[in-house]
Amino acid sequence: MTDLTELGVAAIRDGVAKGDFTAVEVAEAFNANVAAAQEALNAFIVATPEAAIEAAKATDAKRTAGEALGKMGGVPIGMKDLFATVGVQTTAASHILEGFKPEYESTVSQKLWDAGAGMLGKLNLDQFAMGSSNETSYFGNVISPWKRNDGGNAALAPGGSSGGSSAAVSARLCPAATGTDTGGSIRQPAAFTGITGIKPTYGRCSRWGVVAFASSLDQAGPMARDTRDCAIMLEAMAGFDPKDATSLDMAVPEWEANLSADMKGKKVGIPREYRMDGMDEDVAKSWDQGIEWLKDAGAEIVEISLPHTKYALPAYYIIAPAEASSNLARYDGVRYGLRDLPDGANLQDMYAATRAAGFGAEVKRRILIGTYVLSAGFYDAYYTQAQKVRTLISHDFKNAFTECDVILAPTAPSAAFALGENVDDPLKMYLNDVFAVPASLAGLPAMSVPAGLNREGLPLGLQIIGQAFDEQGVLNAGLAIEQRAGFTAKPEKWW
Amino acid sequence: MSVDTATVAKIASLARIKVSEQELEAMVPELNGILAWVEQLGEVDVTGIEPMTAVIPNTLRLRDDVIDADPLTGGNKRDAVLANAPAAEHGFFGVPKVIE
């Protein structure tokens, strides 16, 4: 019998529907992989093998009864621990939410369960999704399943913030996982681990029940092994939700059915500002290769300009911390989560002690920056200026899309780095998202597809950025690259 | 603009995060590094540009003005609301004494 954990979303869905294997067999196979890898990779904060089996049994029973199985029928998935799940600890990888068991289910996770998916567990992440290497989790680092080919044994970063998701999918602990992307948190980890991930247009997926980081940027999306699997899962996750004020009231397109790798008549923009001085040689090469692949698929290549690119990252590091400082004000030691009440402390002391004990260093850093840029006297100089620059970045994209249909760029400036390599320098860490952040600031759909391996044997990703609401164009260009890249590399099992 | 120890202490107090003297000393150069880097936004000409309010044009909706429009977020949820409270007492959130 084939190893069921080598199958992706489409193959599992179709195999279960046809009766080649049962959903329970699939869930058991993935449960075993999750348990076997936990100590070495630390991808999950909590495993929920019973939930996976229970959902699988429901799917198998439906099949016996001749009922429809749903878009994700029989597919077990990993759930980033940023989505509220009823009765299952939801922490955002923080100490302050340790032990928090939501009384409600996030809209996105509920939609996935309704579509027939089951939950293998809650995936580790950077604390409150703040980080690019999964080194800020209260529950320990996630270790990438990938190793360099230099014979060394350096533990590598799986990317962040969706580092548990990326590590788990690439190590075959789950066929797909949810991610969230505020400034690259789906795309950069996908690139680091040789998997595919898409952040849809802002508002496609409901934010209800997703622990908030920066509400004007946060957007959920799927992470899976290929483009088709992402299309299937995104269909299940997306859709209007009256409980989210910024949810898009639009029908969910049939992305999977409309997949097409034919790029004839399409124009692909290459932003000249993304070709930065001192760019990693392998990254530059894979970008050139991507251009050739899309030409081969029939696309016309045009050079475009996004003049405010260099200001995207500093604008992001004002806007995101500002929103975070406001969103994270809710953690007060009163309503849920941790409480630290020193002897004789009053209410204000309790707030300060609780938040000091409950937040990690990076979270505190961003709250302080956010508080500072929003404080009286500095608001206009920092926050208003950053929001004006954000408008300019959005205009840049609008102008570019008068000349092209999609934009092709690298996902990240380098392949995965070693754990510990960037932790002492926050600015160096922030630079990881230099190519990812502009699309986030403009709310545009963007995905990362694996393009090949670098000289160290590590995956590199290519990023496709599309116009608002045009996930189809993004997925199609991704598919065209995927078919030509023929990326089949996977980490050699050492765990 | 740069911050000194006193300013960081003030911000931490506004953000309700207790920080030790030692942490303050470490935070000052870190925050100044980040602030010096974001300073470059000042060189962008933003004349006549409106600050971004919504990346994707959308209108704010109003829900029907009825009680329990959504039973999930409607009333009579006291026990669910208090279920995760660190110190729920007599059907309320318990806090240290506020009024002397």
TrEMBL record, chain A:
Cited Pfam families: Amidase
EC number(s) on file: 6.3.5.7
InterPro entries associated with the record: Amidase (IPR000120), Amidase_CS (IPR020556), Amidase_dom (IPR023631), AS_sf (IPR036928), GatA (IPR004412)
Catalytic activity line of the entry: L-glutamyl-tRNA(Gln) + L-glutamine + ATP + H2O = L-glutaminyl-tRNA(Gln) + L-glutamate + ADP + phosphate + H(+)
Record carries keyword Nucleotide-binding: yes
Active site positions, chain numbering: 80 (charge relay system), 161 (charge relay system), 185 (acyl-ester intermediate)
Top EC class of this enzyme: ligase
Domain Amidase: 25-475
Signal sequence segment: none
Record flagged with keyword Ligase: yes
Keywords, in A-Z order: ATP-binding, Ligase, Nucleotide-binding, Protein biosynthesis
Function of the protein: Allows the formation of correctly charged Gln-tRNA(Gln) through the transamidation of misacylated Glu-tRNA(Gln) in organisms which lack glutaminyl-tRNA synthetase. The reaction takes place in the presence of glutamine and ATP through an activated gamma-phospho-Glu-tRNA(Gln).
Subunit (UniProt): Heterotrimer of A, B and C subunits.
Family classification: Belongs to the amidase family. GatA subfamily.
UniProt name for this protein: Glutamyl-tRNA(Gln) amidotransferase subunit A
Organism the protein comes from: Novosphingobium mangrovi
Designated gene of the protein: gatA
UniProtKB/TrEMBL annotation, chain B:
Chemical reaction(s) catalysed: L-aspartyl-tRNA(Asn) + L-glutamine + ATP + H2O = L-asparaginyl-tRNA(Asn) + L-glutamate + ADP + phosphate + 2 H(+); L-glutamyl-tRNA(Gln) + L-glutamine + ATP + H2O = L-glutaminyl-tRNA(Gln) + L-glutamate + ADP + phosphate + H(+)
Keywords (A to Z) from UniProt: ATP-binding, Ligase, Nucleotide-binding, Protein biosynthesis
The protein's enzyme class: ligase
InterPro entries per UniProt: Asp/Glu-ADT_sf_sub_c, GatC
Superkingdom: Bacteria
EC id: 6.3.5.-
Family under the similarity heading: Belongs to the GatC family.
Assembly description: Heterotrimer of A, B and C subunits.
Function: Allows the formation of correctly charged Asn-tRNA(Asn) or Gln-tRNA(Gln) through the transamidation of misacylated Asp-tRNA(Asn) or Glu-tRNA(Gln) in organisms which lack either or both of asparaginyl-tRNA or glutaminyl-tRNA synthetases. The reaction takes place in the presence of glutamine and ATP through an activated phospho-Asp-tRNA(Asn) or phospho-Glu-tRNA(Gln).
Protein name: Aspartyl/glutamyl-tRNA(Asn/Gln) amidotransferase subunit C
Biological source species: Novosphingobium mangrovi (ex Huang et al. 2023)
Name of the gene encoding the protein in the UniProt record: gatC
